[in-house]
UniProtKB/TrEMBL annotation:
It is a multi-pass membrane protein. It is found in: Cell membrane. The keyword Transmembrane applies. It comes from Leucobacter muris. This is LysE family translocator. The chain crosses the membrane at residues 38-68, 75-93, 149-177. Keywords: Cell membrane, Membrane, Transmembrane, Transmembrane helix.
């Protein structure tokens, strides 16, 4: 397998993986509707940075520990499950506590770009399924004569290229819809739906934790 063949082959897998709905998509979409574009972009950059970290780790074999060690995988799964469930529950509780009587249009919440970046990064890094995917996929696209670290970084950047386009589309669409959807009633339901998605993924990770051998 040549370098070009490896990149093209991985690009097909990365493109399909990018558009599959998941935690990252829900997080960025929610940020684009309820916050500013800058906050949503920072969240997306956090997610993409986590992807690069996983790609490099998989290339050098660090994530092999997730597959080889049941204890490490369980710790990661439990940490990820608790974090996602906590985020989901926080969104849901906030939507009931922060009810607004009037339906006047709300301005976009600016938030902190650093907070958005951290949220995206931590959410991605605490998802062990991302690490397992990279562990399974990247070794199959490592041509001879190319440094694993270099190749892992290149493949992660390929994945990020698709992610950048996908997240940009989500942010633009969310920002455009945000002007119409950013009412107290809609925002409460948006938080409940987003919280439910995060909570669901947290529960699924917890079930994986319990069923791991």
């Amino acid at each position: 397998m040549t370098f070009e063949q490896a990149v093209l082959g991985f690009a097909v897998v990365a493109a399909l993986l990018t558009v599959v709905p998941g935690v990252d998509t829900a997080l960025v979409l929610r940020s684009s509707i309820s916050h500013s574009r800058g906050y949503a972009a920072a969240t997306a950059l956090g997610v993409l940075s986590g992807t690069i970290a996983w790609g490099i780790a998989a290339a050098v074999g660090a994530t092999a520990l997730l597959a080889a060690s049941t204890l490490v995988y369980r710790v990661f799964s439990l940490a990820g499950a608790v974090y996602l469930a906590w985020m989901g529950a926080r969104f849901i509780v906030k939507s009931f506590r922060g009810g607004v009587a009037q339906d006047a249009e709300l301005p976009a919440l600016r938030g902190s770009a650093r907070r958005g970046f951290t949220t995206g990064l931590v959410t991605n890094l605490l998802n062990p399924k991302v690490g397992v995917f990279y562990l399974a996929a990247i070794p199959q696209f490592l041509p001879e004569g190319v440094s694993p670290i270099v190749m892992g970084t290149v493949l992660a950047l390929v994945h990020n290229a698709f992610g950048l386009v996908w997240f940009a589309a989500l942010i633009l669409a969310g920002s455009a819809l945000g002007a119409r959807l950013r009412s107290p009633r809609v925002m409460r339901w948006l938080d409940r739906v987003t919280g439910g998605v995060l909570l669901l993924f947290g529960v699924r990770l917890a079930l994986d934790f319990r069923s791991a051998p």
